[in-house]
Amino acid sequence: MHYGNRPHPQIVAPGTFSSDEQPGKPDIVFTTPRFTGGKVSKPGYVTVLLNGVLTQDHTELLGPTVHHALPTWVAHDPDMPVKLQDHSMPVRFRNIWIRPLVPANRLDSTLSRGASTHQ
After folding, report:
1. Which residues of 48-81 are buried (b: 16+ CB within 10 A; e: fewer)?
2. How far is Cα 86 from Cα 48, in angstroms, rounded to an integer?
3. Is the pTM of this model over 0.85?
4. Are strands 26-31 and 44-50 parallel, antiparallel or unpaired?
5. What pLDDT is recorded for position 107?
C-alpha cells in the first residue's frame, strides 16, 4: 500500500504506522455507518492489517475518500457495493473476499449451543 513511500494522512491515522516490508496482503475489517433520519447515528470504522502489521485499529471514518476535501457521509443503504480505487494507474485486484461478520451476540449464542460457526 505505501511501499517505500511516506504514508498519506488520509490512509494512516495519527498514532498508527505503515508497513514498508513488502507491498500487498492487507486484511480490512470495515463496519458500515448507520443512519437515522438521514444523519449518522453510528459511525463507520475500519481496522487494517498490512502484512500482519496493525496499521489502523478501529479507526472512525468521517466519510468516503475524497480529493483535497474533508469527507462527509451521505445517508445510504448499509449493504451498498464496495468500490476499489485505482487513481487511473495500472493496478490489479485479486483474491478479494467480502463476507459479513457475525455480530458478537449472535456468535455467543451459537457457541453456547455447541453449534459450529463454519459454513
Report:
1. bbbbeeebbeebebeeeeeeeeeeebeeeeeeee
2. 19
3. no
4. antiparallel
5. 63
